[in-house]
Amino acid sequence: MANSFHSSDIPYKIYLSEDELPQAWYNVRADMKTKPAPILNPATHQPCTFEELSHVFCDELVKQELDNDTAYIPIPQPILDFYRMYRPSPLIRAYFLEKELDTPAKIYYKFEGNNTSGSHKLNSAVAQAYYAKQQGLDGVTTETGAGQWGTALSMACSFFNLACHVYMVKCSYEQKPHRREVMRTFGAEVTPSPSDTTEAGRRILQAHPGTTGSLGCAISEAVEKAITTPNTRYVLGSVLSLVSLHQSIIGLETQAACKKYGIKPDIIIGCAGGGSNLSGLIAPFMGEQLRGEAKYRFIAVEPASCPSFTRGKYAYDFCDTGHVCPLAKMYTLGSDFIPSANHAGGLRYHGMSSILSELYAEGQMEAVAVEQTSVFAAARQFARVEGNLPAPESSHAIRVAIDEALKCKKTGEAKTIIFGLTGTGFFDMTAYKNFNDGTMTDYIPTDAELQRSFDLLPKF
Ligand SMILES: *Cc1c(COP(=O)(O)O)cnc(C)c1O
């Protein structure tokens, strides 16, 4: 490209060819000296067995969840075939953002919003639907918050011809009718949660009449529905180690693109809700660090209104509000914690991936919490120069990428920064409207508020 405004040899978009698509997922647990703590049966407090978990989850997925040792797990051909429709995803050099910030830093983002579901969640949805089909199941149930996971799963289920029942957090169901219609178009049944279709939902409705729901509550409903419907299992789109495994495709492609073009990242940044995109993006790089081959700064970015890493406790907790799920050791705000009503930026889950939790506890990665108005300011700045409307969740990573690039401007260091741009913001225009109207506010929970939900952490 002659007369480009930049002199570098690195193209704006780095696409790998289909032949370069990774053929196996990478399981970072294989390189961890201290493995993530096992998930426990809430009744016995003993590690969950394959037997127990396979009542709720698909067999092959339980095997992946319990596998701390196999470093590379081959991706079955039908999943690779589906991946080929939208992968490899591009790694993009943010030349225009660099210019706007007047920074010597080199900024790249791995864009996962280039598929109809609009986020990275499709990477695991396709895998989970495939294994459900392999097992001969009729269908799966799940929960969805903002709607990205439900959308991804409904696409995957329609591809593999499985029934899909989605419990959608009620406030999102009402605020995002278009998400609901995408899911229904792909054949999913969508129920606002809490609902009167489950025991767990009825209990929560009774205790909190008028509640607009939470992810933890929708999980309880979806699990109950799976257990009480013949030949059906529950699937989860984040938090679990099996999901991190599938999302390693993001990091493996990023690593391959970096090798191909001689790019050496100094800082790798991702937003953290339940930890799936971040754990996937950093996995192979973290593997290098754990094996002593390289050193990186990994930064998890979370909302100040739901600060699991930066203000949470590293403890065993319930994964859901209804307490029907196993206990996981993770950074948590307590399963009763619900972010304040003004919170529009996503990433509202109370807990965090047990893999990332262990790595954070060991000091292998950092975390920062940012307020949503500063997140949307970063989103707008990025959108205007890069021509890409980011999801609010992804914009947490943009905020910190910009902050790190501005630090480079002060010090004159030309650091290489990679961040995960996990999705598109097209379904989040209500939140953007609040920001554009100047009515968006920030809310940081007080220590006393957090203590109230810490007090309810299981004790044993
Ligand atoms: C779900 C979602 C996230 C957060 O989930 P993680 O499991 O932490 O990755 C981030 N970005 C987008 C676009 C999402 O849909």
Description:
With 460 residues, this protein is an alpha/beta fold. The chain folds into two domains: 5-23 and 88-118 and 248-454, Rossmann fold (3-Layer(aba) Sandwich); 24-74 and 120-234, Rossmann fold. The chain has helices at 50-53, 59-66, 77-86, 95-101, 122-134, 148-160, 170-175, 177-185, 199-207, 215-228, 241-261, 276-290, 308-311, 354-361, 372-386, 392-411, 429-437, 447-454, and strands at 13-14, 24-26, 72-74, 91-93, 106-111, 139-144, 163-169, 189-193, 232-234, 267-271, 297-303, 313-318, 327-332, 366-370, 416-421. The strands form four sheets. Strands 1-4-5-15-10-11-14 form a seven-stranded mixed β-sheet, with helices on both faces. The protein has a four-stranded parallel β-sheet with strand order 8-7-6-9, with helices on both faces. Helix 6 runs parallel beside helix 8 and helix 11 (241-261) crosses helix 12. The longest helix is centred in the middle third of the chain and has 21 residues, at 241-261. It is globular and about 60 Å long. It starts with 12 loop residues before the first strand and ends in a 6-residue tail after the last helix. Bound molecules: pyridoxal-5'-phosphate. Pyridoxal-5'-phosphate (PLP) binds at residues 119, 121, 148, 238, 271-278, 347, 391, 393-394, 422-423.
